[in-house]
Amino acid sequence: MGELVSPGSHSRIIKERSLVMWPFFACLRLVLLCVFAIPLTGCHRPAPQKYKEIVNGRDGSVLIEIPAGDFLAGGHGELGYVDHGLEPPIRKVSTKSYLIGKYSVTNQQYRRFVADTGYKSEGGWEQYAGKWPERAPVVGVSWNDANAYCEWAGVRLPTEVEWEKAARGTDGRLYPWGDEWDPKKVRCNLRSLDQDPGILGSSNSDGRGPVPVDRFEEGVSPYGCYQMSGNVSEWCSDLEQNRGRRALRPVGNWQTERELKVFFRPACGTSSPPSRWEDSLGFRVAKSSSGGE
């Protein structure tokens, strides 16, 4: 026959068992919240919050103010690319506040620059500008061409550190939208999209090429910058002193295959001679903030 338990002892036993089981129920509650939140939130990183935007008077570029502070730069060296200087090791980097283009510089903007100044481009931008939309990023520009544009517009090219922070925020995410690379979701322009010209909205005959700068809203960075993964690679201001080469980010663009996902990470960069130009290389502008600390 079982031992009799007094009402007071019974209450104490229930309390003790509740304390023991509390961590289990707390974890269960957390799991259920996550499971049932998936249809509503997709369990992605938080949506980009609004940051201060200004319009540059000379060329009409929309500039987003990036706050001063630390961020996690670099990558994990997947596939050994870190050993080839494409994705440096993870490290904490501090920046002053600054402004950077919400979008890449477009064909329309670059055409105005040439018309206003009579500038003779080093690259072959004109052969692409007539082929792709006016609101697509200007390509076929060398670093020298991009720098000349910036001098006219009263801005500058971003440093690699500024470019990377604007592209991925402060939390060390792999891509502008988070850590997930889902081949079924269209978050950036890459080579595999040539099978769907409707997505590209391009005017060239085979449906390939850069897309307008305001496409792929699901791929924006935490600060609200568009197309910092895919579409075009972009010139940065950094100079490799011993080689005379200028930096560009990211390696991945509209000509890169989906399987080479590491190339679409903002941390993945390379460098090139400043006279180089091609149909997948453009730029965006930056400016030092008057309130920089």
Structure description:
It contains 6 helices and 10 strands, in the order αβββββαααααβββββ. The protein is an alpha+beta fold and 293 residues long. It has 2 domains: 11-43; 53-288, paralog of FGE (formylglycine-generating enzyme), CATH 3.90.1580. The strands form 3 sheets. A 4-stranded antiparallel sheet has the order 1-2-5-10, covered by helices on one side. It has a 4-stranded mixed sheet with strand order 8-7-6-9. The protein starts with 6 loop residues before the first helix and ends in a 5-residue tail after the last strand. Mean pLDDT is 77; it is low at 1-44, 79-84 and 194-207. 40% of the residues are buried.
In CATH, the topology of the largest domain is named paralog of FGE (formylglycine-generating enzyme)
Largest beta-sheet details: 4 strands, antiparallel
Secondary structure: helix percent? 25-40%
Overall morphology: globular
Query: Strand order across the biggest sheet?
Result: 1-2-5-10
Low-confidence stretches: 1-44, 79-84, 194-207
The level-1 CATH class of the largest domain? Alpha Beta
User: Which structural class matches the secondary elements?
Assistant: alpha+beta
How many distinct beta strands? 10
Order of helical and strand elements: HEEEEEHHHHHEEEEE
Name the average pLDDT: 77
**Tally of separate domains:** 2
* CA-CA gap between termini: 77 Å
Q: Would you identify the CATH architecture of the largest domain?
A: Alpha-Beta Complex
CATH superfamily of the largest domain: paralog of FGE (formylglycine-generating enzyme)
User: What is the gyration radius calculated from CA atoms?
Assistant: 24 Å
**Strand coverage percent:** 5-15%
Number of helices: 6
